[in-house]
Design brief:
Length: 214
């Protein structure tokens, strides 16, 4: 099976939009294992709206938690225990890529003993880090890269979201020793057409092809 994990340096930085773009561009299947917050549109619903793909290409969440909090706390308030050993990567057809969107940043707790990054380490699939281009992103991104490396997790590269900031992108690439996959600008209109156009003009499909199956 081929899979890519989409994580980020923080919450609300554009992981869901990037995941939607990759699901379209790679003809993939989307999965958000843990959804925290159900009062508004969920991430899976956002991906469905932005892409227009069939529901068969969106795998239901393993955990749906009511409060928009860190998964460990949202689960406690719902009297639910998140069990990482129950979160195995779903099997998808051989011609598809599974796009897995994590919750928040890499060190977000799933429960009182395990972090989301521990789950990534067990999955052993390549990770894409989504980062802002705004002030503060160098520190946040390099810390995320270091945490992933300490657990021997394969980092496919960085996808930036925001306005052009060439020096910041270069600095992160050089200090982090990671590939810069491209930058998704702040699009005025978000839909399947604009996301496909952005990918075609600013990214290379071959950079996102997993080297092998798991």
């Amino acid at each position: 099976m081929r899979a890519l994990i989409v994580t980020g340096t923080d919450t609300g930085i554009g992981k869901t939009v990037v995941s939607a773009m990759l699901t379209l561009a790679l003809d993939g299947i989307y999965w958000k294992p843990v959804q925290s917050g159900l009062s508004g549109e969920t991430d899976s619903e956002t991906v469905a709206r932005l892409t227009g793909i069939s529901q068969e290409r969106i795998i239901s969440e393993a955990y749906r938690l009511r409060q928009p909090l860190s998964p460990h706390r949202a689960a406690e308030l719902d009297a639910v225990q998140i069990k990482p050993e129950a979160l195995e990567l779903p099997r998808v057809p051989a011609n598809r890529v599974l796009i897995v969107e994590g919750a928040g940043g890499v060190l977000v707790p799933l429960n009182r003993t395990e972090l989301q990054i521990d789950l990534f380490a067990r999955w052993r699939a390549p990770v894409i880090v989504v980062a802002r281009t705004a002030l503060g992103t160098i520190n946040h991104t390099l810390l995320s890269i270091e945490a992933l490396r300490r657990r021997a997790i394969n980092i496919l590269g960085i996808v930036f979201v925001g306005e052009e900031n060439a020096d910041t992108m270069r600095t992160i690439g050089e200090f982090g020793g990671v590939k810069i996959l491209g930058r998704l600008p702040l699009l005025k209109h978000l839909n399947a057409e604009t996301l496909c156009s952005a990918f075609a003009s600013r990214f290379r499909r071959e950079d996102f092809d997993p080297a092998h199956e798991w």
